[in-house]
Amino acid sequence: MAWVRDQIDAVKSIQIRQLLIQAVSLGMIVTSALIIWKALMCFTGSESPVVVVLSGSMEPGFKRGDILFLHMSKDPIRAGEIVVFNVDGREIPIVHRVIKVHERKDTGEVDVLTKGDNNYGDDRLLYAHGQQWLQRHHIMGRAVGFLPYVGWVTIIMTEKPMIKYLLIGALGLLVITSKD
């Protein structure tokens, strides 16, 4: 009887060890992703080196679901560049083209006016109340490349949270049931 109990204890010990190994593996995957993200932030100089186009305002150049790669440099922003910016009071960044550049005579700082390629008017209605121009601190980065349609995964998971929960559950089940 003691031999059976020892065998049961040994199996439980192995199961606990496997569970700990799986938890550590999952933690390493998450940590690796965060390290890669932080490294991209340092390399690109942008607080968000990758963004997903969420609307059709930049069509035909960029379509909904395209992923943009951003870079932020000290070079002055020029008309014609595509930038991603945040507006005070809004959480979601916007991807639009710079249509005008305005240099302030008193400080020498450059302000910009943007517009979506597929929109009729400029973005002043999108800016915070009373704001006429975007300052440098609003700009998250300049588009330097893109992958078409890859961002649809993010859009679907945002618009249909049940799919996100199913995917997370399936990945969790896969981690728990995988054997090394």
TrEMBL record:
One GO term in the molecular function aspect is: signal peptidase activity
Tell me the ranges covered by the Peptidase S24/S26A/S26B/S26C domain, including all copies. 37-114
Q: Name the reaction it catalyses.
A: Cleavage of hydrophobic, N-terminal signal or leader sequences from secreted and periplasmic proteins
E.C. number(s) listed in UniProt: 3.4.21.89
SUPFAM superfamilies reported for this sequence: LexA/Signal peptidase (SSF51306)
Task: Mention one GO biological process in which this protein takes part, according to its record.
Answer: signal peptide processing
The protein's matches in Pfam families, at most eight in alphabetical order, are given as:
Peptidase_S24 (PF00717)
Task: Extract one GO cellular component term from the record.
Answer: signal peptidase complex
Q: Which InterPro entries does this entry report, sorted A to Z?
A: LexA/Signal_pep-like_sf, Peptidase_S24_S26A/B/C, Peptidase_S26, Peptidase_S26B
Topology with respect to the bilayer: Single-pass type II membrane protein
Q: Which UniProt keywords apply?
A: Hydrolase, Membrane, Protease, Signal-anchor, Transmembrane, Transmembrane helix
Kind of enzyme, top EC level?
A: hydrolase
Location within or outside the cell: Endoplasmic reticulum membrane
Has keyword Acyltransferase?
no
**CDD domains hit by this protein:** S26_SPase_I
Q: Which Gene3D superfamilies match?
A: Umud Fragment, subunit A
Task: Summarize the protein's role.
Answer: Catalytic component of the signal peptidase complex (SPC) which catalyzes the cleavage of N-terminal signal sequences from nascent proteins as they are translocated into the lumen of the endoplasmic reticulum. Specifically cleaves N-terminal signal peptides that contain a hydrophobic alpha-helix (h-region) shorter than 18-20 amino acids.
* Family (UniProt): Belongs to the peptidase S26B family.
Q: PANTHER family in the record, alphabetically?
A: SIGNAL PEPTIDASE COMPLEX CATALYTIC SUBUNIT SEC11 (PTHR10806:SF6)
Stated name of the protein = Signal peptidase complex catalytic subunit SEC11
Species per Swiss-Prot/TrEMBL record: Spinacia oleracea (Spinach)
